[in-house]
Amino acid sequence: MKLITRFEAASHTTAELQGLYREAFNALAAAPRGSQEQRNALASFNNVRRELATRRLGF
Question: How many domains does the chain divide into?
Fold first, then answer.
């Protein structure tokens, strides 16, 4: 999975972020343990999750 940065996540709509969240979760589950792919998926998952949380809080 391509790494999704916080800056990139902020440029997406909430609906798009929800799709990316699901995509990152699935990539994380499928990636080999300890691989670069797993690290990218985990970082992307967290970045999308944080952006969604920020929007829910209204910042």
Answer: 1
